[in-house]
TrEMBL record:
Homotetramer. Belongs to the phosphofructokinase type A (PFKA) family. ATP-dependent PFK group I subfamily. Prokaryotic clade 'B1' sub-subfamily. This is ATP-dependent 6-phosphofructokinase. NCBIfam families: PFKA_ATP, PRK03202.1.
Length: 319
């Protein structure tokens, strides 16, 4: 393999830049030319491709977002769109590609591999919802952001004896809610993977109040219920001074944590190794601190599962 490409796609995540840097540096270390595809699959279809040098990925390891830009591209979901992409790659003489992104981006990478163009997926999403890896790039940084917010909200919640509902990201996966809720000492964590019971939430709030708790923090993943609606219901049912904070896109930004930078560096470098070994159609991940890889199509067939032991633990610790 003499020329490879790299793109970032779907929702951006802190640490994507560190992954791009690792791909570029590792490839050049092995005398392979690297081309950046700008703007995800939309950029690929349009041939928005430029060679990347060692220097072009300098000074980005600490930056959030993605310097290769990202996009959502409906056309790439069609065979015609995918073949246009393959044509652009052939024209540029690129023989393999590293795709950094989430589940949707993996589907694109799998489609390209099925068209005979080898791709390796690198899990980049704050949601931590990709199979074949314990952690995705960006999750740790998003947690850090949420924890900072919870800690600040806790200060004001305690001062005013308020109940706070904090809505965090997670349409289908409750990982951000669960981990941040556990780390932030939330009384209640509401995730898409488990039905929630308003009576139980109220009874917990009541018990806490009776034993003198000065504040209550409820974390809800956006995919389950709107924080604003939930706050209204709690206020009506409990008559507690209830406020709502919807954290929104701030969770996607910021400088990646050391964990995300190291993870991104290891995963990006391994993806290049796989292409060198002639192993396309793989997705890299981390399991028990070992870098592993799986068949990308197999991963797409699996459903992400939440760590229910952690959810149980959070309930035990927030009595
Ligand atoms: P993420 O990668 O973060 O999950 P999306 O689901 O938006 O984000 O996917 C990113 C892009 O991947 C889409 O805009 C589309 O171009 C491509 N993609 C998604 N699903 C498919 C699919 N089934 N086949 C081919 N490409 C896809």
């Amino acid at each position: 393999m003499k020329k490879i490409g790299v793109l970032t796609s779907g929702g951006d995540a802190p640490g994507m830049n560190a992954a791009v840097r690792a791909v570029v540096r590792k490839a050049i270390y092995h005398n392979i030319e690297v081309f950046g595809i700008y703007g995800g699959y939309a950029g690929l279809i349009n041939g928005n491709i430029e060679e990347l040098s060692l220097g072009s990925v300098g000074d980005i390891i600490h930056r959030g977002g993605t310097t290769l830009f990202s996009a959502r591209c409906e056309e790439f979901k069609t065979k015609e769109g995918q073949l246009k992409g393959v044509e652009q790659l052939m024209k540029a003489g690129i023989e393999g590609m590293v795709v950094i992104g989430g589940d949707g981006s993996y589907r694109g990478a799998n489609a390209l591999t099925e068209h005979g163009f080898p791709c390796v997926g690198v899990p980049g999403t704050i949601d931590n919802d990709i199979c074949g890896t314990q952690f995705t790039i960006g999750f740790d940084t998003a947690l850090k952001t949420v924890i900072e917010a919870i800690d600040k909200i806790r200060d004001t919640a305690t001062s005013h004896e308020r109940t706070f509902v904090i809505e965090v990201m997670g349409r289908d996966a409750g990982d951000i809610a669960l981990w941040s809720g556990l780390a932030g000492g939330a009384e209640t964590i509401i995730v898409p993977e488990e039905n929630y019971d308003m009576n139980e939430i109220c009874s917990r709030l009541r018990k806490g109040h009776e034993r003198g708790r000065k504040h209550s923090i409820i974390i809800v993943a956006e995919g389950v219920a709107s924080g604003i609606e939930l706050g209204k219901q709690i206020k009506e049912l409990m008559n507690f001074d209830t406020r709502v904070s919807v954290l929104g896109h701030m969770q996607r930004g910021g400088s990646p944590t050391a964990f995300d930078r190291v993870l991104a560096s290891r995963l990006g470098a391994r993806a290049v190794e796989l292409l060198i070994e002639g192993k396309g159609g793989r997705a890299v991940g981390i399991e028990n601190n070992q870098i592993i890889d799986h068949d990308i199509a197999a991963i797409l067939g699996e459903a992400h599962t939440l760590n229910m032991n952690l959810l149980r633990l959070s309930k035990e610790l927030s009595i």
